[in-house]
Design goal:
CATH architecture of chain B: Orthogonal Bundle
Structural class of chain B: mainly alpha
Helix content of chain A: 40-55%
Strand content of chain B: under 5%
Number of helices of chain B: 9
CATH architecture of the largest domain in chain A: 3-Layer(aba) Sandwich
Number of strands of chain A: 13
CATH topology of chain B: MetI-like fold
Oligomer: heterodimer
Number of strands of chain B: 0
Shape of chain A: globular
Number of domains of chain A: 2
Structural class of chain A: alpha/beta
Order of helices and strands of chain B: HHHHHHHHH
Helix content of chain B: over 70%
Radius of gyration of chain B: 20 Å
Largest interface: A-B, 29 and 22 residues
Distance between the termini of chain B: 44 Å
């Protein structure tokens, strides 16, 4: 659990880069810091591991005040991932991944085992990469290694500063999904900086939206899309926020809430796991009147139309 | 040229002894210069105001003619009875080596990608760990280029140290001039040049070996 209490950062005694921010990130959650550049999101992130000193206020990690801890020890217990991956070009992939365990004085065998474990976790073959150097890897692979390095000493907390920002859209969405899978296993408390509302919705259990150093809204993505706290938030999330929110719901949610009509024609089949944003795009792109929902055994359960999606969206937005 | 070769064949032992003396002087000066210059260069990256001053001073030292520097040190070192000989030559070479070593170290460490430094700090390296594990290895090729520069420079200036009795291949040139012996001068001069070329080549190989494998983008 990470708690921010009246956290303020003032530069040169006048500008408040971060202005009296208070909120709590529960254990095992991903909180995305979102906002335009210069809104203080990165500054706030870097205050957690004290790369930026706190001017006023306190930050607690699992009840311990960060300022009361030794700076170096604190950082070794917090995973840190940056946009440009920050891998050390002079070290092999294995040395890069195990750099924190090495600082902590682990023995060789333990480090080797941990390296293999982490590579399995991020889906890269350990033996193929062990002796290679960062510049020989693609951007996506480098970023995976960056994440593995941050997790090496199994820190309870991770800071990620636009970790997927430098990747092309296809690789980015791939890595986002992959990382969410990993998160299901490891259950870290993660602070994640982004400037991309879609990324925030995908990745966040909570989203904190900042403007000029002030916290505008801190809520689950659903609530932010349904009930923006003010003009700034609603402009920032965009006028298409209803469509964005579709990405948060799956066919299964819809089927739970609405009665599906019995199967009509043999139309295109869709699984329960498909999200409603994809469904919408299938309707528009492929020109079907209705789609057949199939369960895990591929047995048809019923069909849905575009009106069903509309109705569902309406109901959930009202109840939110 | 034939005469010079004859001279070399007749005085092999002496020429080799002088060469070894030369290598000893330059080698010792270089080792000490690295031990002083590299830490100064690294320190300067943390203090821009001092960096300007120190680099200026090192540049000014470079412009002092070597023969004048030797002359200036005679009265100073005479106090401890070392006015001429090995010690003033050693000190002069150390001073001349400082500019290329300090400047290259400073520039190399300064140019380490700020993201590397940020990552190193962020994962919990202390300043010393960061310098040792990240900054020096990344900066090493450029630091080595400075050392190469300093060595070649020192081999040349080392020849002039013979005038204050420090020995080395300069002795052949010095005596050749006083005795009107052209062959001696040629052997001394060619010896110094060869020594410089060989040292530069060997250090070039060392530079390649010391360059971290991952930094060799063309590999």
């Amino acid at each position: 659990m990470i708690e921010f209490k009246n956290v303020t950062k003032t530069y040169d005694g006048k500008v408040n880069a971060v202005d009296d921010v208070s909120f709590t990130v529960p254990q095992g959650n991903i909180a995305v810091f979102l906002g335009p550049s210069g809104c203080g999101k990165t500054t706030l992130l870097r205050m957690v591991n004290r790369l930026v000193p706190i001017t006023k206020g306190e930050i607690f990690i699992d009840g311990e005040q960060t300022n009361s801890l030794n700076e170096i020890q604190l950082r070794r217990n917090i995973g840190y991932v940056i946009q440009s991956n920050g891998l050390f070009p002079n070290m092999t992939i294995e040395d890069n991944v195990t750099v924190v365990p090495k600082l902590l004085g682990w023995d060789k065998e333990k480090m080797r085992n941990r390296f293999f474990e982490l590579m399995e976790l991020i889906g890269l073959k350990p033996d193929d990469f062990r002796k290679r150097y960062p510049h020989e890897l693609s951007g996506g692979q480098q970023q995976r290694i960056g994440i593995a390095r941050a997790m090496a000493a199994d820190p309870p907390v991770m800071l990620m500063d636009e970790p997927f920002g430098a990747l092309d859209p296809i690789i980015r969405s791939h890595l986002q999904k992959e990382f969410l899978q990993i998160q299901k296993e490891v259950q870290k408390t993660i602070l994640f900086v982004s400037h991309d509302i879609d990324e925030a919705i995908t990745m966040g259990d909570q989203v904190a939206i900042f403007k000029d150093g002030r916290l505008m809204q801190y809520d689950a993505p659903d609530d932010i899309l349904a009930n923006p706290a003010n003009e700034f938030v609603s402009t920032f999330v965009g006028s298409d926020r209803a469509i964005k929110s579709l990405g948060l719901h799956t066919v299964a949610d819809l089927v739970n809430q609405l009665k599906v009509t019995p199967v009509a024609a043999d139309s295109r089949q869709i699984s329960l796991k498909t999200d409603l944003r994809q469904i919408l795009s299938i309707f528009f792109n492929e020109g079907y009147e209705e789609l057949v929902v199939v369960d895990e055994e591929k047995k048809p359960m019923g069909s849905i139309t575009i009106q069903d999606v509309q109705k569902y969206l309406h109901q959930t937005n009202q109840s939110a | 040229m034939n005469g010079a070769f004859q001279y070399f064949m007749n005085n092999q032992d002496e020429v080799i002894a002088l060469t070894l003396q030369h290598i000893q002087l330059v080698g010792l000066a270089t080792v000490i210069a690295i031990l002083i210059g590299v830490p100064i260069g690294i320190y300067l990256t943390t203090n821009d105001a001092v960096a300007d001053v120190v680099l200026q001073i090192a540049a000014i030292i470079m412009t002092i003619p070597s023969i004048a520097l030797f002359g200036l040190m005679i009265p100073v070192l005479s106090v401890i009875n070392q006015g001429i000989g090995f010690l003033p030559a050693l000190i002069a070479l150390i001073l001349y080596s400082q500019l290329p070593i300090i400047r290259n170290t400073y520039v190399a460490v300064q140019n380490v990608d700020p993201n590397m430094r940020d990552a190193a700090k962020g994962i919990g390296m202390s300043s010393w760990e960061r310098i040792r594990m990240v900054e020096i290895p990344i900066a090493l090729p450029v630091i080595m280029a400075g050392v190469r520069n300093a060595v070649v420079l020192s081999i040349g200036i080392g020849a002039i140290a013979a005038f204050i009795g420090a020995g080395g291949l300069g002795v052949l040139i010095d005596q050749g001039i006083s005795r009107y012996n052209r062959d001696m001068i040629v052997v001394g001069a060619v010896g110094v040049s060869l020594l410089a070329i060989i040292a530069d080549t060997l250090l070039g190989i060392l530079q390649r070996v010391l360059t971290p494998k991952g930094m060799n983008i063309n590999a």
